[in-house]
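Re: that chain you flagged

S.,

Sorry for the slow reply, it's been a week of failed gels. I finally had a moment to sit down with the sequence you sent. For the record, here it is as I used it:
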Amino acid sequence: MITIIKQWQARYAHFWDRLNVLRAGILGANDGIISVSGIVLGAVGANLSNQTLFISGISGMLAGACSMAGGEFVSVSAQKDVQLSRLNAQTTPDNRNSETYQTKIRDIDLLSPLHAAITSFVAFLLGALIPLLAISLSTPRWRLTNTLVAMVVALTLNATVSAQRGAIPIRKVILRNITIGLVTAFVTYVMGSLLGGAV
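Prediction finished late last night. Pasting the structure tokens below so you have them in one place:
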């Protein structure tokens, strides 16, 4: 069994693809947290019922996850096409011994669009569940506050994980994440309030 796992890692979990999957996961979770928080807080601003809030959140969660997965698949497929083009160019007789092409791209270095798409899809769903559960389990009086707190905590955790992989100070990444989330929440809540009052 261990041999099979090691063979799988050697074939499918190589360095560049791990970075690709990590990036897709962090972005997917971040987008899920912010997008669904914005959707449900916009619905709160419009003073919609709990049932409508939940349906809006679920719809946004599924649509967002599919959108993120599709976007990752298209984006990483384009990167893989470039890699394949470079790989093919390296193996032509004219370029095989050229200093320009020293076989820096190997078959194992090719990125997997499917890995990125699946990771992004799952991460978006997991990120989106946080604000969705926060608002669904709250009373009408506390659903705004609880959702904002859940969003800030989730964005802080996600920023902390992403900052571990780089040289950027954690505090800066956390502040950036939270600022984007709060601006999104403010815009959607105000828009919901305006549109809800107009109906």
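What I noticed first: DSSP finds six helices and no strands in the chain.

Talk soon,
D.
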